[in-house]
Design brief:
heterodimer; A: 359 residues; alpha+beta; Alpha-Beta Plaits; five-stranded antiparallel beta sheet; four-stranded antiparallel beta sheet; 31% helix; 27% strand; B: 490 residues; Uridine Diphospho-n-acetylenolpyruvylglucosamine Reductase, domain 2; Uridine Diphospho-n-acetylenolpyruvylglucosamine Reductase, domain 3; 5 domains; 20 strands; Oxid_FAD_bind_N (chain B); FAD (chain B); flavoprotein (chain B)
Chain lengths: 359, 490
């Protein structure tokens, strides 16, 4: 594994490179492709953190744990709740903040608060030509030129190597509670459609889970009002018991230690029950139905999963290959018009195909 | 300001282009020179130029037909929503066709369970909320022009509003779109689900100022309306203290939906205009929170406690809806009040909240040096400033002087760690300042994106990038020239 220590060194390397590279930070998320491994973990360090302005700038190789610790010390956090892939993929190593952005890695709060891409204010990256590019900045509203920040967030290293990210952070609410009960996706939709500011809506381990966060007096009020509106019996979990539940949903803990392919399906929330019924596989449902994790044994049923998603609307990513044959792409194939644009962009930023194996 | 020389070859075949458009889109083409005056500018009224023709399609298929013709004929296309851009985003050139979306206003689908709406993008921002509010929902981004501005323009400029501290801007509320490329191809991106499977094309199209494609339909996220909202008004005897109070509120973990800031010149002007009953002080904050009455009480109690620790000259909570409306009245009439004081340029730079006191002080110094008056009214929670430079357009040289001050203030915003524009867009207005914020490689990377979507640079080509930087790519490639004797005559 090659390691780079600076953006300049990376730019020089990429400008003269003709063979594929597999670039990563902690290599924990299964996003990296073929070619010699190149670690960007050396591009480390929190470069600016202004709690009063809710912004943090860090080298892409900065461990996620270091970022989260710095934020926690000021009572703040990454509100998009990035998942930890290690339990699901059996990987080890330190997840980095660059990997979070490159994968647009979000967790349960994404349904309301937004994804990693929504909290990413700026990036620096080196493209496949060795050009150092910056875009966005460290302010919350910025429409100066094209939003390449969004293009880089979730690009899985296909366009270039992210070297620095600038993030919007948010305060940690003083209280959280979870209502645990029954009802599935329709009840989650009713909760998310209420004015009570639900920040988590999942079905895991057979239980319907709804999270509320905020000031203590506000949470107490909303908890009562929401339970009354939804009807039924709700067990109330507080503090660490609630937090542990959502870590489990975030990291898809019910699948840990089990064999099989893991599909991550983004689907129109109301269609999630149809998807579950059509496939009949073990599932964890998040985002009020908008995200369905499927654990599929045998050959992974790639054709059926993708056909169902095609029919219902959405996209399926193969997060853990399991028994799915090697030729099946990890990402949902794009319609021709979109694929033409995506192909054009990858050729523009990476004309020599250095990152072609990524994704 | 400079614009490219109109392409003589295009001008020479005006009749042919108009005939082809009329054949393909009967009743949707405007070519009469008098009627075309309606399309000669947007809300950046200092610059005007009638287009070669204007087309008002009724369907995505008609948009595609018009784009194909313009593409084949090599005619530049300038997309237009409602024409409310303050940055000249829809300013035509004489050799361009305006493609207006004003006739495409239908709601195509509403799904409250999935909290989404699909609509045609000519629809106005406020009427999106209008379509869903009976069911208790709303569309969050709320630019000041929301009564008039179209979703198409909101997407093109990634518009914000007063409430984005909590709800985000357009890009955070856009789930999918139907776009017509310059070549006339219809592309669907995203939909009523979350995130992209591959590259986030939706994210780069939003905010691309109509340079990548014409967005004709959109999937937007709608949200359940909060139970209620209530503002509090806090006056301070210095801008520094007001800025520190904003930071303290944010640091305390409170997340108001809006924190608006007005300085003394702005307070005086709005007070004279609206009689909202504002205290005369150096800086005024309007902080709004949402929730049930009890939740609002709890939040306002905490905000009040923080504010009192900064020794405010006034702290006024709205006891009822009437008082709430009075608190907002002055802020909402701020731009109208400025209009009474004279002509104005509204800037839109964003700065890190921590730099607020320094930036306000420097703006005052820069304005004094040029003998101009600047009033500040802005979204303090997110650092999006709106300095208003007051000038007299009839006084020779004042517009140029005001524009020069504007450039200095925006440069200051960038130097303070911020950016040129937080929600209005670059358009033609800030095009030539892009090099202040971005280096050559940064601009090249952005222009490379346009190369992919619009290889011949026919779509809104003279915007966003300094003309020199985009010259090689723009069709014809003539060097830019200064046009007309005055900026009003291009």
């Amino acid at each position: 594994m090659r390691e780079i220590g600076s953006e300049e060194e990376l730019a020089e390397l990429l400008a003269g490179r003709n063979a594929p590279l597999s670039v990563g930070g902690g290599f924990t998320r299964g996003m990296t492709g073929e070619g010699e491994r190149l670690s960007a973990a050396g591009l480390t360090g929190i470069r600016l953190y202004e709690p009063g302005a809710l912004t943090l700038v860090a080298g892409a190789g900065t461990p996620l744990a270091e970022v989260e610790a710095a934020l926690a010390a000021e009572g703040q956090r990454l509100a998009f709740e990035p998942m930890d892939h290690r339990g699901l993929l059996g990987t080890s190593g330190q997840p980095t903040i660059g990997g979070v952005v490159a994968g647009n890695v979000s967790g349960p709060r994404r349904v309301v608060a937004g994804a990693a891409r929504d909290f990413c204010l700026g990036v620096r990256f080196v493209d496949g030509r060795g050009h150092v590019v910056k875009n966005g900045g460290r302010v919350m509203k910025n429409v100066t030129g094209y939003d390449l920040v969004k293009l880089m967030a979730g690009s899985r290293g296909r366009l270039g190597v992210i070297t620095e990210v600038s993030l919007k952070v948010l305060p940690v609410p003083e209280t959280e509670v979870t209502l645990a009960g029954e009802g599935g996706v329709p009840v989650l939709a009713a909760a998310l459609g209420s004015p009570f500011e639900v920040t988590g809506a999942a079905v895991s381990g057979g239980r319907t889970l709804i999270r509320l966060e905020g000031l203590a007096e506000s949470v107490a009020y909303r908890q009562g009002a929401l339970a009354a509106r939804l009807g039924g019996d709700w067990e109330v979990l507080e503090g660490e018991a609630s937090a542990a539940l959502w870590r489990g949903v975030r990291d898809v803990a019910p699948f840990h230690g089990k064999e099989g392919a893991v599909w991550r399906v983004a689907v129109r929330p109301g269609r999630a029950p149809e998807l579950l019924e059509a496939l009949g596989e073990e599932a964890v449902v998040d985002w009020g139905g908008g995200l369905v994790w499927l654990l599929v044994g045998g050959d992974g049923r790639a054709e059926e999963v993708r056909a169902a998603v095609e029919r219902l609307g959405g996209h399926a990513t193969l997060v853990r290959r399991g028994g799915v044959p090697a030729g099946v792409p990890a990402l949902q194939p794009e319609p021709a018009g979109v694929a033409r644009l995506t192909g054009g962009l990858t050729r523009a930023f990476d004309p020599r195909g250095i990152f072609a194996g990524a994704g | 300001m400079q614009m490219p020389v109109p392409d003589a070859a295009v001008l020479a075949k005006t009749a042919q282009v108009v005939a082809r458009l009329e054949a393909a889109l009967p009743g949707a083409v405007i070519s009469d020179p008098v009627e075309l005056r309606a399309y000669e500018c947007d809300a950046l009224t200092a610059y005007r130029c009638p287009p070669l023709a204007a087309v008002l399609p009724r369907t995505t298929a008609e948009v595609a037909a018009a784009m194909r013709i313009c593409s084949e004929e090599g005619v530049p296309v300038v997309p237009r929503g409602a024409g409310t851009s303050l940055a000249g985003g829809s300013l035509p050139t004489a050799d361009s066709v305006i493609l207006g979306l004003a006739r495409m206003t239908r709601v195509l689908e509403v799904d409250y369970a999935d909290r989404v709406i699909r609509l045609e993008t000519g629809r106005t921002n406020l009427s999106v909320t209008g379509a869903v509010e009976e069911a208790g929902f709303f569309y969050a981004p709320d630019p000041s022009s929301q009564l008039a501005c179209a979703i198409a323009g909101n997407i093109a400029m990634n518009s914000g509003g007063a409430h984005c501290l909590k709800y985000g801007v357009t890009t955070n509320n856009l789930l999918g779109l139907t776009m017509v490329t310059m070549e006339g191809e219809v592309v669907e991106i995203g939909g009523p689900w979350m995130d992209a499977p591959g590259l986030d094309l939706l994210g780069v199209i939003c905010g691309s100022e109509g340079q990548l494609g014409v967005v004709t339909e959109a999937w937007l996220r709608i949200l359940p309306k909060p139970e209620g909202a209530r503002p509090v008004l806090i006056g301070f005897d210095s801008s520094e203290t007001a800025g520190a109070c904003v930071s303290a509120i944010i640091r305390a973990g409170l997340l108001p939906v809006a924190i608006e800031f007005m300085d003394r010149p702005c307070i005086e002007a709005t007070e004279a205009f609206s009689g909202a009953g504002y205290p005369m002080c150096e800086a005024l904050l309007i902080v709004e929170v949402e929730g049930s009455p009890a939740e609002i009480d709890a939040q306002l109690a905490r905000i009040g406690a923080i504010a009192r620790s900064f020794d405010p000259v006034e702290l006024r909570e709205a006891a009822d809806a009437d008082e709430a409306a009075r608190i907002w009245m002055g802020r909402k009439s701020a731009f109208g009040a400025m209009g009474q004081m004279g002509d104005y340029i509204c800037l839109d730079g964003t700065i890190p909240v921590s730099e607020l006191p320094m930036v306000l002080r420097r703006i005052g110094e820069l304005a004094a040096a040029r003998g101009l008056k600047v009033a500040n009214v802005f979204h303090a929670g997110d650092g999006n400033m709106h300095p208003l430079i007051i000038f007299d357009a009839n006084a020779p040289g004042q517009l140029e002087e005001a524009e020069a001050l504007g450039a200095e203030i925006l440069t200051l915003c960038v130097e303070a760690g911020g950016c040129l524009t937080g929600e209005h867009g670059v358009g033609v207005e800030k095009r030539d300042l892009m090099a202040v914020q971005y280096g050559e490689a940064d601009l090249e990377a952005q222009m490379a994106v346009k190369d992919v979507f619009d290889p011949h640079w026919l779509l809104n080509p003279a915007k966003v990038f300094p003309l020199g930087a985009s010259e090689r790519r723009r069709q014809g490639g003539q060097p830019p020239v200064a046009v007309g004797d005055s900026p009003r005559d291009i």
